[in-house]
Design goal:
Shape of chain A: elongated
Oligomer: heterodimer
CATH architecture of one domain in chain B: 3-Layer(aba) Sandwich
Largest interface: A-B, 20 and 23 residues
Largest sheet of chain B: 6 strands, antiparallel
Number of helices of chain A: 2
CATH topology of one domain in chain B: Rossmann fold
Strand content of chain A: under 5%
Structural class of chain B: alpha+beta
Shape of chain B: elongated
Distance between the termini of chain B: 46 Å
Strand content of chain B: 15-25%
Helix content of chain B: 40-55%
C-alpha cells in the first residue's frame, strides 16, 4: 500500500513530462496545419515548398 | 518559421503608425485587431474607453473577428493615444494586414492550444485521483492517504487555474474593474470560489474538494473558445488573403544604372520602374514600359481569363504576370492601389457590428445582473434550509447561467455566412447586410451594366446637315472620355486624338456637358441636351442626343446585350418568392425589350436617380423590404436608400461606397444562392438564441434546487456553447437551394418575428 506514495509522485512527474512534450510540439508548429501532410501524398511533384 | 522569428520588433504602436491608419482632412481612420476580445462586454469596455477620449468620433468593435475600427479628429488626438487606451484596457492592439497579423493570430492559436493541453491533461489526471477519493468515500480510506491525494490534486489544479484559466480570470477581473458585468464575472467567481473552498478544505483535512470540477470546467470552456477563435481567424483570413496577395518586396531598377535592387513595398513611389518576372505578382498599380504582359487579374477583378497588356497599358496591383518578364512604371503609392482600396473597404465593413448581435449583447448584460441577484437569493435560501448544500448549489447556479451561448449565437452565424458569401464571390461590406438580405421580398434591378453586359455599341448615327457622323462620334467620345457610365464605352472607340474636351461635367442620369473647340455641347437624354426645349430633327426614339446652342446635332442609337446568366438568375430569384422590378435610366425601347425577354412586369424606363428613389420609397411605404442591385453612378442614391443593396464589382466607386454587398465576379449567377444563404443564416441565428435562452431557463431551477452538481452544469454550459458554434457552421455547407428550385426555402420571413426590430438604433 505504501507503494502508492511512490507511484503518485511518479504520475505527477509523468504528467509534467507530457505537458512539456505537448508545449514543445505546439511551439515547433506541429499543430499548425493538420491538412497539408495528408494532402501531400496526393501531390505529384516533390513537395519542397517552404512552410511558414 | 522564417517569417515568425522577426515578429517582435514591430510591436510598438509608433513605428506602425504609417502602415495601418489613414489620415486625411484632419480625420483619421484605423482598423486593427485587439487580441483578447472575447465577449460583448470587452467590446463595450473598448467603446466606452475610447468614447471618453476627446477627439474620437466613432468606435466600432466586432466581437467575432476581434476587430476595432476607430475614427478620430487628428487635431484633438492621435493614433498613439488611442492605442495606449486600448492597451490600458488589457487588449493588445495588433495590425491587421500582413505578416504581423498572421504572426499575432498564430501566437493566439498556440497559446490557446497550450492552455487546452494543460487543462486537458491536468483534468484527466485529477479525475483519476478523484476516483480514488470517491471510492474511498464508500469503502473507507486511510485519512492520511486521502489527504495526500487532495494535496496532489491541489498541486496539479493550481497551474491549470493560473495558466489555463488565466484569460478567464483576467477577463472577469477586468469586467469588475470596469464595473461592467460580463459572462467572465460569473465564471471567474465560480472558479475562484470552488478553488479557494477546496484549498481551505484540503488544508484543514475535512470537507469536499472541487478540483476536478474546476479543471474540467476550464477545459470545456477553453475548447469552446478555441472553436470560436478558429471561426474568428477564418473570418479574418478573407481579408488577409487579399493583403497577402501582394509580395513584401519588389525588384526596382535604379534610375541611372538600371541595376536591380530589392526594396520593401512601402518604399515604392509613383514613377519608380519595376521588373516583374514570369509568374511574379505585380506589386502595385502601374503601366507597362517594356515587354508584353499576360496578366491574370482574377483576384483583383474576378476576371478569370488572362489579358494581354502592351506597353502603355495599365496593370493592376495584385494580378499575376503569366507572360514574359516586363518592366513597369509605378503609377500609385503602394497603399493607394486598387487592391488596397478594396481591402480597406472590406476591413471597414468587417469592423462594424452586426445589429442583431447588439440585441444579444444587451440581453447578456441584463442576464448577468439577474444571475447575481438570483445567486445571492439561492445562497440565502439554502443557508436556512441546509447550509452544507448552499455552496454546491451556488456554484451550480453560477456555472449553469453563464450566458456564453447567448453571446455567441449571432456573431458566429454571421461570420460563417460572410465567409460562405465570400466563396460565392459576394463581398459583405456592411455586417448587417446578411440579416437584411434574408428579409428582402422585392428586388429592383438596374438594366445597364447589371442585367446587361454593360458593353454597349453605337448601332446607328443620324446627323444634321453639315456634320459628318465621324465628327459627331468624335465630339461625343471627347465628352464621354472620363465618364464611367457604360454608354461612354460605346463612344470610346470613336475617339480622335485632336478633338478634346477639358471641362466635361457629368449629370448623373441625364448626360454630360462640356466645351469642344470652344463650343458648348451637351450629350445625353433629349430633354437634357436640348435644355431650352427646342425640337430636334431626328426620329422620335432618338436615344442619346448631341446638341449645341443651335439645337440637336446628332442622335445615336446605343444598345447592349443581356448577360448570359440573366435569365437563370431571374428564374432563381423568382423561385425564392421574390418580386422583381426593373428600373432603368435607359429609354423605353431597350428596357421593354429586356423586361420582355426576362418576363419582368411593369418595367420602369427613363428614370433619373430621383425617380428611382421615388420608386423605391413607394415600395418601402407599401411595406416591402427591397434589395437594390445596380452598378452606375446614377444608382448611388437608390443603393444607399434601399434596405440592402448590391453593387456590381466593376461598377462605379459611388455605387461601391453606397452598397452593402459587392458582386466580385462580373456575373449575377450567385445571387439566388446568396439570398438563400442569408435566409438560412437568420433561421440558424434564431435557433441559436432560442436554444441558449431555453437552456439557461431550464438549467437554473435545477441548479438552484441543488439537483445539478457543479460539474454537470459545467458540461451542460460548454456543450450548449459548442452546439451554438456547430449549428452556425452549418451555414458554411448547407444545401440552401435544395435540389429542385421549386422546393427550395420559400419561407418569407415573418416581419413580426425579426430580431432587427428588437434593436432600435
Amino acid at each position: 500500500m505504501s507503494s502508492i506514495y511512490l507511484l503518485i509522485p511518479l504520475s505527477v512527474i509523468l504528467i509534467g513530462v507530457a505537458v512539456w512534450a505537448f508545449f514543445w510540439a505546439v511551439d515547433t508548429g506541429q499543430f499548425e496545419d493538420l491538412d497539408a501532410q495528408a494532402r501531400s501524398i496526393l501531390e505529384d511533384e516533390d513537395a519542397s515548398r517552404s512552410g511558414d | 518559421m522564417k517569417t515568425a522569428a522577426s515578429g517582435k520588433p514591430h510591436r510598438t504602436a509608433v513605428s506602425l503608425e504609417g502602415h495601418w491608419a489613414s489620415e486625411s482632412d484632419g480625420q483619421g481612420h484605423v482598423v486593427f485587431n485587439a487580441e483578447g476580445i472575447r465577449c460583448a462586454n470587452c467590446a463595450r469596455s473598448i467603446r466606452n474607453g475610447l468614447g471618453a477620449l476627446p477627439g474620437v468620433t466613432g468606435t466600432e468593435v466586432n466581437v467575432v473577428n476581434g476587430r476595432v475600427s476607430v475614427s478620430w479628429n487628428s487635431h484633438l488626438t492621435s493614433l498613439g493615444a488611442i492605442l495606449a487606451i486600448v492597451a490600458d484596457l488589457g487588449f493588445k492592439p495588433v495590425p491587421l494586414v500582413g505578416a504581423a497579423a498572421a504572426a499575432a493570430r498564430r501566437e493566439e492559436r498556440r497559446a490557446s492550444l497550450k492552455r487546452i493541453g494543460l487543462a486537458g491533461l491536468g483534468s484527466v489526471q485529477i479525475m483519476m485521483y478523484a476516483a480514488g477519493l470517491y471510492t474511498g468515500a464508500f469503502h473507507g480510506i486511510d485519512p492520511a492517504l486521502a489527504g495526500f491525494l487532495k494535496w496532489t490534486c491541489l498541486l496539479i489544479a493550481t497551474p491549470v487555474l493560473l495558466y489555463s484559466g488565466a484569460p478567464i480570470l483576467r477577463g472577469g477581473l477586468h469586467d469588475i474593474r470596469r464595473r461592467t458585468l460580463g459572462m467572465d464575472v460569473t465564471v471567474s467567481l465560480a472558479l475562484v470560489l470552488a478553488f479557494v473552498a477546496s484549498v481551505f478544505n484540503t488544508a484543514r483535512g475535512q470537507g469536499e474538494v472541487y478540483f476536478d470540477s474546476v479543471t474540467m470546467f476550464i477545459f470545456f470552456l477553453l475548447v469552446g473558445r478555441h472553436v470560436e477563435m478558429k471561426g474568428r481567424h477564418q473570418a479574418a483570413s478573407v481579408t488577409d488573403a487579399l493583403a497577402r496577395a501582394l509580395p513584401a518586396t519588389a525588384t526596382r531598377l535604379r534610375a541611372a544604372t538600371d541595376d536591380a535592387e530589392r526594396v520593401p513595398l512601402e518604399q515604392l513611389r509613383p514613377g519608380d520602374r519595376l521588373r516583374v518576372a514570369t509568374g511574379e505578382i505585380i506589386p502595385v498599380d502601374g503601366t507597362v514600359l517594356a515587354g508584353i504582359a499576360l496578366v491574370d487579374e482574377s483576384l483583383v477583378t474576378g476576371e478569370s481569363a488572362a489579358r494581354q497588356r502592351a506597353p502603355g497599358e495599365a496593370l493592376l496591383g495584385g494580378s499575376i504576370n503569366t507572360g514574359s518578364a516586363i518592366t513597369l512604371q509605378v503609377t500609385s503609392a503602394p497603399n493607394a492601389s486598387a487592391l488596397h482600396s478594396l481591402v480597406r473597404l472590406l476591413e471597414r465593413a468587417q469592423g462594424e457590428r452586426p445589429r442583431i448581435g447588439l440585441a444579444a449583447e444587451r440581453m447578456a448584460s441584463w442576464f448577468v445582473l439577474r444571475i447575481l441577484v438570483l445567486t445571492a437569493l439561492v445562497a440565502i435560501a439554502w443557508a436556512f434550509v441546509d447550509p452544507s448544500r448552499a455552496f454546491p448549489a451556488v456554484l451550480a447556479v453560477l456555472v449553469a447561467t453563464c450566458p456564453c451561448a447567448l453571446s455567441l449565437a449571432t456573431p458566429v452565424a454571421i461570420a460563417a455566412a460572410t465567409s460562405r458569401l465570400a466563396r460565392l464571390g459576394v463581398l459583405v461590406t456592411r455586417s448587417d447586410a446578411v440579416e437584411g438580405l434574408a428579409q428582402v421580398d422585392t428586388v429592383i434591378l438596374d438594366k445597364t451594366g447589371t442585367l446587361t453586359t454593360g458593353h454597349p455599341r453605337v448601332l446607328e448615327t443620324q446627323t444634321r446637315e453639315g456634320l459628318s457622323s465621324g465628327m459627331a462620334l468624335s465630339i461625343a467620345a471627347a465628352l464621354e472620355e472620363s465618364s464611367r457610365h457604360p454608354v461612354a464605352q460605346a463612344f470610346r472607340a470613336h475617339g480622335a486624338r485632336e478633338i478634346r474636351c477639358g471641362d466635361a461635367r457629368e449629370f448623373p442620369g441625364d448626360g454630360i456637358e462640356g466645351h469642344v473647340d470652344g463650343r458648348l455641347w451637351r450629350l445625353g437624354k433629349p430633354a437634357f441636351a436640348l435644355q431650352d426645349g427646342r425640337a430636334h430633327p431626328f426620329t422620335e426614339d432618338a436615344g442619346i442626343l448631341l446638341a449645341d446652342a443651335s439645337g440637336g446635332a446628332a442622335a445615336f442609337v446605343v444598345s447592349d446585350e443581356l448577360r448570359p446568366d440573366a435569365g437563370e438568375t431571374v428564374a432563381g430569384l423568382r423561385a425564392l418568392g421574390l418580386e422583381l422590378r426593373l428600373a432603368s435610366g435607359d429609354r423605353e425601347g431597350p428596357v421593354a425589350h429586356v423586361a420582355r425577354r426576362l418576363g419582368i412586369a411593369r418595367p420602369a424606363a427613363r428614370l433619373r436617380p430621383e425617380d428611382k428613389l421615388t420608386l423605391l420609397r413607394e415600395l418601402q411605404a407599401g411595406g416591402h423590404r427591397v434589395l437594390m442591385i445596380g452598378d452606375g453612378m446614377n444608382d448611388g442614391p437608390v443603393l444607399a436608400a434601399a434596405q440592402v443593396s448590391m453593387a456590381m464589382g466593376h461598377g462605379s466607386s459611388i455605387a461601391h461606397a453606397a452598397a452593402d454587398l459587392l458582386l466580385l465576379r462580373d456575373s449575377l449567377a450567385s445571387l439566388p444562392e446568396s439570398v438563400a444563404v442569408a435566409r438560412r443564416t437568420l433561421v440558424i441565428i434564431r435557433q441559436n438564441l432560442r436554444w441558449s435562452v431555453a437552456y439557461n431557463l431550464a438549467a437554473v431551477p435545477l441548479a438552484a434546487l441543488g439537483l445539478m452538481p457543479p460539474w454537470i452544469a459545467a458540461i451542460g454550459m460548454s456543450l450548449s456553447s459548442l452546439l451554438v458554434v456547430m449549428n452556425a457552421r452549418r451555414v458554411l455547407s448547407a444545401d440552401v437551394l435544395g435540389r429542385k428550385p421549386p422546393q427550395g426555402p420559400r419561407r418569407t420571413p415573418d416581419p413580426h418575428h425579426t430580431l432587427a426590430t428588437e434593436a432600435p438604433q
